[in-house]
């Protein structure tokens, strides 16, 4: 099964499996080699619309925390089903207003070989207190690149989907 087909099957399964009324619209489902992230949009509470600044942030945070606690057992059960069916760990998160919060995430070690100039970049970030370790510094760099190249990465992912479809339709399919 191609990554594109797997992502479509996952989206369909979660859309059909999640309780009605949890989220406004379908959740965002992101699949990589190890993890499935499920992020749904919660309706913004009326109290947040009338509040400003810190009070608004508090209302949104409280609303997200209430959802997290009220749905914990169901989310765990759904995650176990999905992990058994698809072989990937499941991470949960929500968006509410301008707040995005992940409840769970998977940290996966990644081996890389870096030359001295790249290591010096990481060490500078550690020495400056931007990161606690080389690993943390590398994660920081990856987030920064991802943030600044979202459009280009999205175009690249779309091109990869076309490649996967072409491979799947090839003579050895």
Protein described:
- The protein has 173 residues and is α+β, with helices and mostly antiparallel strands.
- The chain folds into 2 domains: 1-108, GMP Synthetase, Chain A, domain 3, CATH 3.30.300; 109-173, no CATH class.
- Helices cover 58% and strands 13% of the residues.
- The protein has helices spanning 3-17, 46-50, 53-86, 116-127, 134-148, 150-168; strands spanning 28-31, 35-41, 89-96, 99-102.
- It has a 4-stranded mixed beta sheet.
- A hairpin with a 3-residue loop joins strand 1 (28-31) and strand 2.
- Helix 4 (116-127) crosses helix 5 (134-148).
- The longest helix is centred in the middle third of the chain and has 34 residues, at 53-86.
- The radius of gyration is 20 Å and the shape is globular.
- It starts with a helix and ends in a 5-residue tail after the last helix.
- The mean pLDDT is 90.
Give a quick rundown of the structure.
This is Smu12A. Helices cover 58% and strands 13% of the residues.
What is the average of the pLDDT values? 90
Q: Could you describe the largest sheet, including whether it forms a barrel? A: 4 strands, mixed
Spatial extent as radius of gyration: 20 Å
Strand order of the largest sheet: 1-2-3-4
Count the domains. 2
How far the N terminus sits from the C terminus, by CA atoms, comes to 10 Å
- What is the H-and-E element order? HEEHHEEHHH
Task: State the low-pLDDT regions, or none.
Answer: none
* Share of residues in strands: 5-15%
Class by alpha and beta content: alpha+beta
Q: Count the helices. How many?
A: 6
CATH architecture of the largest domain: 2-Layer Sandwich
CATH class of the largest domain: Alpha Beta
Task: Assign a percent range to the helix content.
Answer: 55-70%
Q: Briefly note the CATH topology name of the largest domain.
A: GMP Synthetase, Chain A, domain 3
User: What global shape is seen?
Assistant: globular
């Amino acid at each position: 099964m191609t990554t594109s087909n797997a992502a479509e099957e996952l989206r369909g399964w979660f859309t059909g499996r999640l309780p009605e009324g949890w989220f406004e619209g379908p959740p965002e489902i992101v699949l990589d080699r190890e993890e499935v992230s499920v992020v749904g949009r919660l309706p913004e509470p009326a109290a947040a619309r009338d509040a400003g600044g810190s009070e608004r942030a508090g209302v949104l945070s409280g609303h997200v925390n209430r959802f997290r606690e009220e749905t914990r057992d169901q989310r765990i059960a759904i995650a176990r089903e999905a992990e058994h069916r698809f072989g990937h760990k499941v991470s949960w998160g929500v968006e509410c207003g301008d707040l995005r919060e992940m409840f769970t995430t998977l940290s996966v070690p990644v081996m890389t070989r870096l030359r001295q100039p790249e290591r010096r970049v990481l060490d500078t970030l550690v020495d400056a207190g931007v990161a606690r370790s080389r690993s943390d510094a590398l994660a920081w760099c990856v987030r920064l690149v991802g943030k600044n190249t979202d459009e280009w990465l999205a175009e690249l992912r779309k091109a990869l989907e076309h490649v996967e479809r072409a491979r799947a339709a090839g003579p050895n399919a």
